[in-house]
Amino acid sequence: MAAVSTRVVQLLILVVITQATIGEERNVLVVGIALLSAAAVLSDTGAGNYLLSHSAPISRSAFYQVLGCQVGFAFCGASASLMITAGEIAGSGGTSVHAVLIALACSQILDSATRVARSPHLITGNYSGYARADFLLCALKFPAVALVHFTDSLEFLFLAPIASAIVFVASLYATAKSLPKAESADFKHTFRSLLHYGISGSASAFYSQAPMVVGAVILPVEIVSPIALAYRVVQPLEVLPATASQQVIPRVRSGNRTPLWYWSRFSIGGSLLAVVVLAVSPYIFETFFHEDVEITLILLLMLSVPVKFGNYALVAILLAKRRPEVRLFCSVVVGIIAIGSTALLGFVVGSNGLALASLISELLLASALGLGVKKTYNVGSGKCES
Question: Which of 79, 85, 27 is nearest to 229 (CA)?
Fold first, then answer.
């Protein structure tokens, strides 16, 4: 519930921005926010997972090192996304546009640091302490969103990084005081260990972010803006299979269900959800974003939803069978293909081409993961190969 609340606030920020701006300024902000979101995924060091991999909380000095790495990588990712949109910002005469994106980037960096700072709460079983930061963040950001809605003044979004800073400092203090003091940790060892998590996660996620990132680099913002909006509506749906796949992993290890059983149920669930979203999406875009997005674009993205849901099931099966290297290899190969297909289809077809490239990537990943799962299992036995 806490994670969903932060996604809702992020979506509301995009809604009020699209309602308060028009033309080139609006397009640049929409694409800029989409790139910031992609940068957050690609620059994630996996610091939270690294901390959770320890059976007990790490020392305070090691914790600060991990947190510093996350902030550094998040800063680099946000800076890269701002550089991509810099030319368009200058073209739109956008001093205010630049300032808003910088404010949102600072807020994003601090939010990513907060997620890392509160991770040790999960090790100690303090689940309420972990979730409390999300609810506090939403409570502090919501007034800024409401003020933008009622005044059409984007300057109130400058309050977002202040809210993020308050929550970060509170989370850092609550966590740090509970960690054991020890001698200074070896930074090189910490960095190498953390890099293993970060590279694996970024490589696995790149294929899904390639259409947005590559599209923003090679195409004008007016072409990328519609799919950027559509992505912001579709991508939050991934919270459902992501959560369910984590719950499936122990069941795969202990149960007798076949991979097809898990894959089919995830895919059917994604299909039903895609039909619902497809039916209401024209109303959503027109009412909340004042944007008439082509039904073809929405349809292409919705076609990828069942495939993506099924892919989450396949990944869960591979992780349950302790074959993460198969997932990484498949994601890297598909990511490389996604760069070329996005560039080609984006130039030829425009925003619909970016959506088509996204669908092709999901289908290729499904095929690769399916082959990996098939190789992992003895045909018809449901037992893992030695």
Answer: 27
Q: In whole angstroms, what is the distance from residue 282 CA to residue 53 CA?
A: 43
Q: Give the Cα-Cα-Cα angle 9, 14, 19 (nearest 5 degrees).
A: 125
User: What are the backbone dihedrals phi and psi of residue 90, each rounded to the nearest 5 degrees, phi first?
Assistant: -65, -40
Q: Is 377 helix (H, G, I), strand (E, B) or coil?
A: strand
CB-side neighbour CA atoms (13 Å) of 81? 31
Give the domain ranges of the chain.
Answer: 1-185, 196-386
Is there a contact between 225 and 353 (Cβ–Cβ < 8 Å)? no
The structure tokens listed for 119 are 């991770």
The pLDDT of residue 86 is 76
How many angstroms separate the Cα of 177 from the Cα of each of 59, 113, 117, 157, 383? Answer: 11, 17, 12, 32, 46
pLDDT in tens, 273-319: 999 998 888 888 887 777 777 888 889 999 999 999 999 999 889 88
Instruction: Find, among 83, 39, 45, 43, the residue nearest to 65 by Cα.
Output: 45
Contact yes or no for 334/207 (Cβ under 8 A)? yes
Query: E strands within 222-323?
Result: none
Structure confidence at residue 167 as a pLDDT band (50, 70, 90): very high
pLDDT of residue 164: 95
Nearest to 186 by CA among 174, 177, 197, 194: 194
Residue 316 corresponds to which tokens in the numbers above? 């869960």
Q: Name residue 31's amino acid.
A: V
The pTM score is 0.82
Least confident of 1-15, 86-100, 238-252: 86-100
Per residue in 198-236, pLDDT (tens digit) is 777 787 788 888 888 888 888 888 888 888 888 888 887
